Structure formats: C-alpha cells, structure tokens
Amino acid sequence: MEKKMWEIQFLSLPHILKYCKKCGKKMAFSCSEQFRINAQRKYLDIWLIYKCLNCNATWNATIFSRIYPQSLNAKMLERFHRNDKALVEQYAMDNGFLQRIGVEVELPQYSVIGDSFSPYETVELEIKSKYFLPIKVSSLIRDTLHISQKEYSQLVIDGKIKSIPNQDLLKCKLKDGITLIFNEKSVDKPTK
Ligand SMILES: [Zn+2]
Question: What pLDDT score was predicted for residue 50?
C-alpha cells in the first residue's frame, strides 16, 4: 500500500476568546509573545500576556503562580526573561495550557505539507502535527482532498476511510497525529 505523510503547519499562534472587562463582552485576544515575570519576596509568578484585539487591554494568563524560584532552573528562567520565541510557542500552542487557563481557542490557519491524492486510491496516510490543537479530521481531509461533506461522509460510512486506532471520523479531532487507511484491500492488510 502506498504511504503518504502530511504535516500540519500552523501559520500563526491561536487567538483566544474570553471576556474583556473593558469591552464588556467576550472578545478575541492575541498572544503578545511576551511573558511577565514578578519576583517578590520568596515567590515567583510568570504569565503569558494576551491583548484584546478590539481595545488592546491586556490579560495575563497564568503559567506559574507563587512558585519557589529555585523550582525553575536558571536557563529556563532566562528563556522567560528574554521572551524566547520557542517557549512562547510551546505555551500558546498547547491545548492543555489553553484549557487550564480556561479560554476558548480560535483555531489558527494552517497549511498541510504533503502530497494530495485521490480519495479513491488505496493509501495509508499518516498525519502529523507538532502541536495538539483541535483540528477536525473531517475538515482537514475534505479541504486537502477537495471533497464535499457529503462525499466524505459517504466514504466513511462505506468503510473506505478508516483510522488506526479506530475513531469516529465524522467527529474526531486531530491530536498529535492519526493514521488513515483509504480503500483498504482485503489482501493488503496494514501491519500494525
Ligand atoms: Zn477589549
């Protein structure tokens, strides 16, 4: 069976949706890509700063609250101080962190790196994503292979698209990755 690989590349950091005190309603906030560090007495607080897209009000998303400075190594602390881009990305793209700070996430635009193919070919497709942001597998497949919702649903219902491990392909979201089998032939079983 022919193997294909797709890789998801996010084109920006996700916006978050939360209540803005100044605007008086739920607004989209963008990541400022800056940390704020407060070291008072024996405790350390670290936040990632978000800005309301409408009024520019800032909101601090808690990364660490009242921790002992010695619980972070010096190198890590230094990365927070210089707003290290990779570290910003690590938090701003982390669904676990975004859930912990209690916000809704607006999925950023993404592109798919890899070869397209006909959904009627026999293909094993591995989809990888460096960051776990909840992309719907159905939209990803439909957009990349240019097929309609109806066509996609029919392929899934007919068992022409399956996943390893088996998931509900009409509803499931991509985590760090998924493997899909298109048009599996009975003689050509995928090896696990
Ligand atoms: Zn606002």
Answer: 98
